[in-house]
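Private note to self, pasted from the team thread so I don't lose it. Backbone tokens:
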């Protein structure tokens, strides 16, 4: 009952379990997520087929369904059409019933047709992995019990089968859009759960991923660790993987002062870095405004109250806070200039109907007005913006 073919001690069973679930996690993050859903890397056919078999055996997930649902999540993020948005559905529903939401979405033919393109459609997929997707996890039960014994095997099997539904469908889709820190002010609620992403294959760095979805590497700060990227690096060194895309690296040229097409292209490519530094500029402006009010003996509490909302998208700011912000801006020309010019800057890369020349003209005009605004942090930010290369 307690001894299987391997006849391992209890700690051996535990170690085997950790290794087995890490292989499953690697299959999800490397094969399903970064390779299939986002085309961030290419895998050698041997690696792809191994992960397809392993995921069939341990999860019963179908590549086309997983890729389609995840692509729709990015396309419709935080809207009524998002398959699993805590903002829309509530954190408890996504966290505890995320796998149910996944199954419900997989039954929608329009989702599969619209977002499931480019996934495997070979003989194995048509005849084994898709029509027999439940057989793998039944086979896994028999294998676990044979290898580890009835009781340990049943426990190991339960953890293996429940790991991805809870940690991926629940925690990443739930907590990853509800709690954590944000490197980038993306248009959704994505967060980085922890900077040391080793428990769920690197998926913990969810805000980084939403900022640069097609990047094969999720860690973007010196203190962040993406264990999935370590696995990919090993596969690349062995000639079993080829990285196609990574997040662009910011390059600044202090001698570059003229705003041109290259500046525009760099600003758009690095728009999240741009907005991160703009947030620092607005923080400095609000600090100077508080000092000014204190020096004059005026009440600075209203400025303090709205500081944390100044870098949020206006659509996500509660109505009562928007009213407070509007009242403060009417009494502070510096904060009003920073607030309104931030929205003007964002619209530059959102205007797809304008040609490059028109957008360059708008960016040049924006920089000139920022530097003539009399707001020192805003002017400093504009001079840094000119240096993007």
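Design output:
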């Amino acid at each position: 009952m307690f001894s299987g073919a391997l006849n391992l001690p209890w700690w051996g069973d535990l170690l085997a379990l950790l290794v087995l679930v890490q292989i499953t996690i690697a299959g999800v993050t490397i094969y399903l997520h970064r390779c299939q859903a986002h085309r961030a890397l290419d895998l050698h056919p041997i690696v792809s087929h191994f992960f397809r078999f392993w995921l069939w055996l341990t999860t019963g997930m179908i590549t086309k369904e997983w890729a389609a649902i995840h692509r729709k999540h990015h396309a419709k993020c935080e809207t009524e059409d998002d398959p699993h948005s805590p903002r829309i559905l509530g954190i408890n529903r996504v966290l505890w019933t995320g796998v149910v939401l996944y199954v419900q979405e997989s039954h929608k033919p329009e989702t599969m047709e619209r977002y499931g393109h480019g996934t495997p459609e070979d003989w194995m997929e048509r005849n084994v992995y898709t029509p027999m997707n439940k057989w793998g996890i039944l086979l896994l039960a028999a294998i676990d019990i044979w290898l580890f014994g009835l009781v340990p095997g049943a426990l190991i099997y339960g953890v293996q089968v429940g790991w991805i539904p809870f940690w991926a469908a629940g925690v990443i889709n739930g907590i990853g859009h509800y709690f954590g820190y944000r490197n980038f002010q993306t248009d959704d609620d994505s967060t980085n759960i922890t900077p040391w992403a080793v428990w769920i294959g690197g998926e913990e760095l969810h805000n980084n991923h939403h900022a640069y979805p097609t990047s094969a590497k999720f860690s973007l700060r010196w203190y962040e660790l993406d264990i999935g990227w370590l696995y990919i690096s090993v596969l690349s060194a062995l000639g079993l993987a080829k990285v196609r895309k990574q997040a662009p690296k910011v390059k600044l040229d202090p001698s570059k002062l003229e705003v041109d097409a290259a500046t525009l292209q760099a600003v758009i490519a690095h728009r999240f870095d741009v907005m991160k530094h703009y947030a620092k500029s607005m923080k400095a402006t609000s600090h100077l405004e508080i000092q000014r009010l204190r020096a004059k003996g005026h009440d600075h509490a209203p400025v303090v109250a709205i500081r944390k909302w100044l870098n949020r998208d206006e659509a996500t700011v509660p109505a009562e806070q928007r009213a407070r912000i509007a009242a403060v801006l009417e009494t502070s020309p510096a904060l009003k200039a920073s607030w309104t010019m931030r929205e003007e800057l964002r619209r530059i890369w959102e205007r797809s109907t304008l040609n490059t020349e028109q957008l360059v003209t708008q960016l040049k005009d924006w920089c000139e007005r920022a530097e003539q605004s009399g707001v020192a942090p805003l002017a400093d930010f504009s001079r840094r913006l000119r240096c993007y290369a």
